[in-house]
Amino acid sequence: MRPFLYSRATSLEQAMSEAAQSHAAIMAGGTTLVDLMRGDLTGAEHVIDIGHLPGLAKVELDGPVLRFGALARMADVAELPFLKQNYPALVESLQLAASQQIRNAATLGGNLLQRTRCVYFRDGVSDCNKRVPGSGCTALDGEDREMALFGASDRCVATYPGDWGTALAAFDTSIEISSAAGTKTVKFADFHVAYGDDPARESILQPGEIVTAILVQATPAGRHSTYVKVRDRQSYAYAVTSAAVALELDGDRVTAARVSLGGVASKPWRAPAAEAALVGQVLNQAVALEAGRAAFADAKALRHNGFKIDLGARTVARAAMVAKGKH
Amino acid sequence: MDINMGNGGIGVPVVRRDAMAKVLGVAQYAADFPHENTAYAALTLSKVARGRISRLDTAAAEAVAGVRMVLTHRSLNESLGDETFVMKGGHMQSSFLPLTSDEIHYAGQIVSLTIADTLEAAEEAARLVAIDYAREAASASMDDAGLTEEPADSGIDVGDAEAAFAAAEVKVDATYVTPAQHHNPIELYAASAAWQDGKLLINLPSQWVMGTRAGLAKVFGIPIEDVHVESPYVGGAFGAKASILPHVVLVAMAARRLGRPVKLVVPREAGFTVGSFRPAARSRVRLAATRQGKLTAVMHDEVGQSAVIDHVAFAGMEATSKMYASPNIRMRAATVATDVNSPGFMRAPAEAPSFFGFESAMDELAVALGIDPVELRIMNEPARDPVSGLPWSSRLLVECYRRGAALFGWSDRNPKPGSMVAADGTLIGYGCATATYPSAMAPSSARVRLSADGSCVVYCAAHDVGTGAYTVLGQVAADVLGVPDELVTVEMGHSRHPSGPVSGGSITTGSAGSAVHMAARAVRERLFATVAAGQDRSKMTLADRHVVLPDGSRRAISDIIGGLPGGVIEEHADWKPTDMDDKTMQQGLAGGMAFAGPVGGTHVSFSFGAQFAEVRIDPLLRTIRVARMVGVFACGRIINPRTARSNLMGGMIWGASSALLEESQIDRARGRFANTDLASYHFAANADVGEVVVEMLDEHDSVVNAIGTKAVGEVGIVGMPAAIANAVYHATGVRVRKTPILMEDLL
């Protein structure tokens, strides 16, 4: 493999300074970066390990904003009783991801930045605009069952693979980003970038910037929330389709709704049309399915992934009904 | 039958002798053997599926610090012995050896081997080998336009099936498709080669150390005795490690040229094309029956994916033609050559794909007739092999069905599709299918040594590929010699041992076990002759480390053997199947492929099983889960119920995995396998496997071999995909005639 320099950061400041150099990569849990480096997919020449830095794994849940330190481990967060009770969608999205061993090591911040599982990106051989800009997109006439229905372009049709990110999109979430210039927060919806003209660019993160926290606005909708993941294999598989739904209810009537989609888009994908279809309605199976169909009204299918329009709608419907049934 | 059941050696669920070593991580696999001063190798693979190398530049690769050699078609430049493809009587995984020309025959073909002082340097150099290709159009899928079917052999004909089918009252005519699949053993392909004084020592995971030795001797033009192959532990093989993979030759070649040991572990993605795979297949099945359910015609047309570089045909007709009584049978097989690496053996190579179609069609016939699928199979049970007319060595398929139906609760099944629904709306389906696998055997040698302290060592160049053979062969010796199982040591997986057969075709227990039995009996005979010359040996027995004389008196083994020169009794045996001639036997013992059966001179020998599945399908999302599987098998005598059960259970789980998950997707535009990692090539996780019930019937087969065992290793997978597809139909009314069956097939 490519020779690279490895250093353990002694402070966040040092890490931010080193990360500002070209071909630097930040490593937290290492579960995804090492894979990418083995596949020669990063071009990283300097790996800056921040996994052990103190203070960045703290989770604070008692204020008006839930604050998740970027280095908190997926497995640890998935076990927090308060979160299980009040934000089941977030917990479920963590529990249904990867394997227990990976969740033990992987961090919440790193999870957001995992890269697509598109086989043509990963194989290191096929033309791929994400890996070699300008080389083309093999998936356009290749195996496209896993590819995106939303946020794709004729340059890239890969999907964002994460579960946690999809669940976060169903809440009022922000990302705290730190750099030598200071700390800023950006809306989660603006953090990832749909694969349009520049598929190699997947988030707004710039060299020298490090995700330090994930901030979720506290909401009563958390209690009536769920994350439904549909996959070929029962465990340890990426979503074919997934949906997170969070509801505020007055009896059986929906007063507020957030719906997001996974496995079908180039970034965590919010579905406002589905939300609109739910709000004001007495929620039943027919209404839920109608909302699911609304979520996929603008979907653009390729040759072999058209079934995800139907399956995705059903996934939203299931999630809506499960969310309603919580507590 | 000469089985001493009194000692508890045979039929006892002895725990695997290698279990602790594996659990503790002390069992050494091929890549764990450290040769001193080893250099490390890495592969570069072809990016195109067909064409020629038009430019090759290794300068950058050679400039990497620590690189010792870049082996390409230009630098190999040496003729190797003309060893051939394993299915043409040789030992190679493919007729084509990479680096012997500039031609590209398939995507992922090895185009260079870089060797360096460290693995990292070798990998970096492999990345820097610069190659341009003159690319030609390729077809990696048998469904591509313009490909033609070639008949694979003459087929099987009994009666006039076409006429009977045309005239039949009830019939089924359907085509079923199975995809390419890859073995993906958890232990990656590997080789570690060292030369000393012109002799080659090679560590690799192998199902055939004797064949590998013979093949490498031929490739390198050295005496067979100068090749030593070591493979004491194998971390999954499934047919993939039965022949010499191309990297093995290249690693040995590099080690010879460098004068230094070389080791290569083939990365997961490279394993998809460095090794072999299960080719895609298509089965057209036509069944005809009377309204009462008696079969009148059975027809099976199989088309299998083959390779341009090697003709490979895995038709299951030998088995499907024997399943049911029918006066008219017609079987045909054909292949379609594609631009892929040579397909090869993979768990029930012929049976697994062909039984998916054949047993799905039986279910469709049962539906068409309105007859219970279990009863339909029972009412068409053949008394003799319907093709040869020979009797079975044993066949308890009906008993398997009766017992399996009881265990499963088949009588609870409402035959109407979609009629069984759980309280939460989950659709429930029950399905069944037949499994079978031929009981073939190969010649084998073995040596057994009994020492004065009662300890016993068994030597045989067979293999434990995770199946429990170490334990099972030890039990055979313990049983004959009347010594406790824990005093027996089994040495296998090394070519210096007495010749053992390939661990393929589910033959190890019947073949190597028979040889061990023969050698152990020879030891016992010498023991008896030593202790009491002139007495009636047929009335002597061995128990608890004592010889029991006809008068009931006992003589300790320690006393008898202690007095002998050397203090041991050691005997060698060369065993062959009854129907095999001596010449074939000698070929087999010398490392050639020499099988006898399943159709012998007087009998036909197969293992049988009845398999049942319960699927649960989400009514909205249409995801399919296998809640329960039941398999009841008749495989002759079971030496070790624990390891046999584990084999059968593993096969059933693989069958479920095959039914619902496993497919090597072929990117047709580029002619290559697309999902070459374990994130995208799915096989079952623990969570996918519900309850698995395995039972083995107490079957006595006095014909098949001296120890009465039939094939266990592969039969477990055979019926499971069809049983699950049939259950999916029962749950939903949707007949899916391809695997894997995915949620979108049911939307």
Automatic annotation (TrEMBL), chain A:
<dbReference type="InterPro" id="IPR016166">
    <property type="entry name" value="FAD-bd_PCMH"/>
</dbReference>
<dbReference type="GO" id="GO:0071949">
    <property type="term" value="F:FAD binding"/>
</dbReference>
<dbReference type="InterPro" id="IPR005107">
    <property type="entry name" value="CO_DH_flav_C"/>
</dbReference>
<dbReference type="InterPro" id="IPR036683">
    <property type="entry name" value="CO_DH_flav_C_dom_sf"/>
</dbReference>
<dbReference type="InterPro" id="IPR036318">
    <property type="entry name" value="FAD-bd_PCMH-like_sf"/>
</dbReference>
<keyword id="KW-0285">Flavoprotein</keyword>
<dbReference type="InterPro" id="IPR051312">
    <property type="entry name" value="Diverse_Substr_Oxidored"/>
</dbReference>
<feature type="domain" description="FAD-binding PCMH-type">
    <location>
        <begin position="1"/>
        <end position="221"/>
    </location>
</feature>
<dbReference type="InterPro" id="IPR016169">
    <property type="entry name" value="FAD-bd_PCMH_sub2"/>
</dbReference>
<dbReference type="InterPro" id="IPR016167">
    <property type="entry name" value="FAD-bd_PCMH_sub1"/>
</dbReference>
<dbReference type="GO" id="GO:0016491">
    <property type="term" value="F:oxidoreductase activity"/>
</dbReference>
<keyword id="KW-0274">FAD</keyword>
<dbReference type="InterPro" id="IPR002346">
    <property type="entry name" value="Mopterin_DH_FAD-bd"/>
</dbReference>
<dbReference type="Pfam" id="PF00941">
    <property type="entry name" value="FAD_binding_5"/>
</dbReference>
<dbReference type="Pfam" id="PF03450">
    <property type="entry name" value="CO_deh_flav_C"/>
</dbReference>
<protein>
    <submittedName>
        <fullName>Xanthine dehydrogenase YagS FAD-binding subunit</fullName>
    </submittedName>
</protein>
UniProtKB/TrEMBL annotation, chain B:
<dbReference type="GO" id="GO:0005506">
    <property type="term" value="F:iron ion binding"/>
</dbReference>
<keyword id="KW-0500">Molybdenum</keyword>
<protein>
    <submittedName>
        <fullName>Xanthine dehydrogenase YagR molybdenum-binding subunit</fullName>
    </submittedName>
</protein>
<dbReference type="InterPro" id="IPR016208">
    <property type="entry name" value="Ald_Oxase/xanthine_DH-like"/>
</dbReference>
<dbReference type="Pfam" id="PF01315">
    <property type="entry name" value="Ald_Xan_dh_C"/>
</dbReference>
<dbReference type="Pfam" id="PF20256">
    <property type="entry name" value="MoCoBD_2"/>
</dbReference>
<feature type="domain" description="Aldehyde oxidase/xanthine dehydrogenase a/b hammerhead">
    <location>
        <begin position="24"/>
        <end position="137"/>
    </location>
</feature>
<dbReference type="InterPro" id="IPR046867">
    <property type="entry name" value="AldOxase/xan_DH_MoCoBD2"/>
</dbReference>
<dbReference type="Pfam" id="PF02738">
    <property type="entry name" value="MoCoBD_1"/>
</dbReference>
<dbReference type="InterPro" id="IPR036856">
    <property type="entry name" value="Ald_Oxase/Xan_DH_a/b_sf"/>
</dbReference>
<dbReference type="InterPro" id="IPR008274">
    <property type="entry name" value="AldOxase/xan_DH_MoCoBD1"/>
</dbReference>
<dbReference type="InterPro" id="IPR000674">
    <property type="entry name" value="Ald_Oxase/Xan_DH_a/b"/>
</dbReference>
<keyword id="KW-0560">Oxidoreductase</keyword>
<dbReference type="GO" id="GO:0016491">
    <property type="term" value="F:oxidoreductase activity"/>
</dbReference>
<dbReference type="InterPro" id="IPR037165">
    <property type="entry name" value="AldOxase/xan_DH_Mopterin-bd_sf"/>
</dbReference>
